[in-house]
């Protein structure tokens, strides 16, 4: 079946039989209306092309009084009602206490790449619109739902999920997911799916370090480059939840959306609630194929500016060099040094505002500190721009210290329960962004900063999670809206800011990787994956990150040693590790010697040559840091002209050589010039065919501990 024919009609609909077939480059997804009017899932897997093959949902019979047919029916978006005991997509409570919700098909609207299906409760005008968008060229399907209270009475939404996804009937499924904590984010886990529910979630008000909203499921047989993988990612930067469930009937289903924990969203008559979006795809080419599909989709369809957005510049950030001790002279000196190395974007981190000399004071007061910057930011920014670098500035707009003018003026702006203690973490409290006045204040502060100064880039930080989530000014029922409205207002502030300042770019940071998800990614150019910049630790953090997110958005810095874990690895190893993402330097350049500067110049020069390939190419994870003592990642440019392989050896034992590297994604018939940094290539030939590079493989000489190189592969 030619791909073009598949794309001709991404969404097919049979009005007689009421079934739909959604098809992308890599997958199909089918659903249909059963005789009783329920909407049911029918298929998710490799591409199909013929809607006539899709039968109407079969009638089911109860297995026993304890196993009603509803449990077997794979309802596409199950309301909690009738005899249904699995994870529902929607659960509501009426004012009179009635909580039964049985959704039935009402109508549908099909567009070339979008489908809307309306459902309604069997009795009341409680309406659900399911939204589907198909990205045929990217192999991705997007789902979300809008819930509307069409009744004359208030109701409460107890659970609103974006989607329920069903895996094909079968056994032996395995779940891959990302977990971690501060400074140890995105660690890869893979485990069998058993009966019961496995929950990945955040209850912290932001996306969180502990789980990332991504999953991949395979039949237990998938590897990096082979096997069938069903995967998905949720676009929500607040409390989220993904429940992976195997029922007693061997169905595996994934339900995800707003976290149900402490959730109770009131809907007045006529009001609606929109769920986050849940994106999903299917790959026949293992976890590598799944992540390449996601990477391309995120770069081209999610990231601001999409495929036309600029390559990420080489960045310098002063944080690890100066911490809070910033001033104009010090920053100018660092800027001059950074410019000489080839840096393109100079970012001043924390410490430039209010009474911010340490983390006890100043958050909330976003006026420039006159002692540190007597002429405002203008002197520094002009100097930075004069050195042909853009200027970026650290902000943490959602927070306030008790020692601040803002808190003294507006103590009621923080998230808190009345009459209860309030936890300060890093000495700071969280402003209640769900409040309209707080939202306006934050927007005004940032808008003013961006209007009065030539700022190209905000590093937007969030250094603690939400706790004691009270909103005393609201009614008890209204208070619970905080979880959702906080995030919506955060998104709104960023959207308005970007609309007013089209040149402005943003990096999302939350004490490292605490806010990385497809919701924030549609609004920022980069994310900070971890406060842990130790290169060897980073290899694993970056590997996990790369499961779900592309190199282009991944800030990665070369910093000083010994690092936070006490380890010291050579600068070359640190640079090569950071060059696998959007390269930055976070070292104290005042302490670098001539040798360090020369190496940095050389590596930044090399980075600029391979940058389009790293940032926009396809990633092949050749050797995992979780395996042996060698890690290797290969990036291949979209046009196939260039490839680069980063190879790291952390601790050699027994004088064994580095495993042969079998490259991927090259043209078998083409000839490539092959060259390694510091001549570490063991091959005698410097010109090799794609066929040989992929099937014969190449060898590199890495000796001792923490040795590294990069192999450049250029098509002749
Ligand atoms: C957080 C960030 C760091 C730095 C500090 C500043 O920890 O992750 O990169 O910006 O805050 O206080």
Describe the protein.
This protein is of the alpha+beta class. It is 21% helix and 31% strand. Strands 6, 7, 8, 9, 11, 12, 14, 15, 19 and 20 form a 10-stranded antiparallel sheet that branches. A hairpin with a 4-residue loop joins strand 2 (19-23) and strand 3. Helix 4 (328-341) runs parallel beside helix 5, helix 7 runs parallel beside helix 9 and helix 11 (535-548) packs parallel to helix 12. The longest helix has 23 residues, at 594-616. The radius of gyration is 27 Å and the shape is globular. The relative contact order is 0.08. The protein binds alpha-D-galactopyranose. Alpha-D-galactopyranose binds at residues 319, 349-350, 394, 461, 463, 509, 511-512, 528, 531.
The poorly predicted ranges are none
Helix content: 10-25%
Coarse structural class:
alpha+beta
Strand content: 25-35%
User: Over all CA atoms, what is the radius of gyration?
Assistant: 27 Å
The number of distinct helices, counting runs of at least 4 residues, comes to 14
Dominant shape:
globular
Q: Which ligands occur here? A: alpha-D-galactopyranose
Query: Roughly how many Å apart are the termini?
Result: 33 Å
